[in-house]
Amino acid sequence: MKNSFWLILFALAACSAPQSQVFLVQEVMTIGSVERLDSAINTLISADAKIEVLASGFEWAEGPLWLEGQQALIFTDVPTNKIWKWTEKDSLSLFLTPSGYLGDRTDKREPGANGLTLDADGNLILCQHGERQVGKMLANLDEPKPEFEALATGYEGKRFNSPNDLAFNSKGQLFFTDPPYGMDPWDEKELDFQGVYRLDSDGKVNLLVDSLSRPNGIGLSPDQKTLYIAQSDPEKARYYAFDLDENGNVVSGKVLFDATSLQSEIRKGLPDGLKVHSSGILFATGPGGVLVLSPEGKHLGTIMTENGTANCGFDSNEKFLYLTADAFLMRVRLN
Question: Tens digits of per-residue pLDDT, 115-125?
Fold first, then answer.
């Protein structure tokens, strides 16, 4: 790591509750760089943009989600079964634990929640690895509690693998992916494929895609006619674009961008979480950090984080792009 440093001292009580954290911020730390392959990237990321490190010390940070009412970012730490909250004013605090697994086993590898989103009523919706379901937190965001309602637990009588990432459209249909990353060796795999699904408001689960080896990040184009899926397969590290009809069904699909050849020692990571900017530009985590892709699949550049990067998300005004990258929470200012 280079440039100046944010020195953050953590006093964490192992696997315990909220009294656990102490942070001392001495100096801003920046990391990495922005690779610019096409001038179009400059309309979104200025020439002097820096990658700021906001917090550190997590096992695998994921699922960044902006809460406008609290002016806060929440994000998951999947292996520790926790959700953290960061604000400009108050720094970092524990938001929710447990987040994804409610059982008694202590040897699960990735028990926590992964992707997060809000429904139209402002409820927190979670991909819960440990419970192998898409769930809704029943408590208010201002007073979070680990009380959940299962919204979707399986397909045609068989349990999901471990729902990973999710996105709503304006009709209230929820699109989500179901790779096996959250499963442990003793978990019974009941489905013989890794699916992409749509959950309708009546509770029906619809299988949209069953041909991807490792579907992961998911997002919708601004007109909601295209569904983007990242595939975390080192042999086929790709981003896909699927055309949707007016009912949210997949009618065709294509490889939007193949990042397989980009993998290297200095470009860590695979296609993982992604978000779609209001301009239609994709910010898609993958080899090197966050790839910036046009809707046509042109690689405009990469936000190089020097770490495996799991996911990203905007604040409500798209002023910042927040990044969860391995042990770090980062952000980049946008134009």
Answer: 999 999 999 99
